[in-house]
Design goal:
mainly alpha; about 0% strand; elongated
Length: about 100
Amino acid sequence: MVKKRRVRKVKRSISKIKRPNPVRSSRVSGRKFKIVTTNLILFIILGVISYALYSASEQLVYVNLFLLLSFLFGFVSLAFFIALLVLLILRGMRK
């Protein structure tokens, strides 16, 4: 015998008013630019201070600590510099 096919009930949702999706603009805001520049300056200063302390310290523990900190702050400041370059490129493409 052939089985009967059952029809599945489809629940229909109440139609909602379609709102346009908010479009995020790719414009570079001044706030982002300010945050990146302040963080870049901060980590450059911290890197210079830790390098100066590395040069001035005599104990091996402090030498290793300040060398590690100067590398760490250097890489973080390099990352912020790259982010700053990206923001400048985006700002240039906008105009």
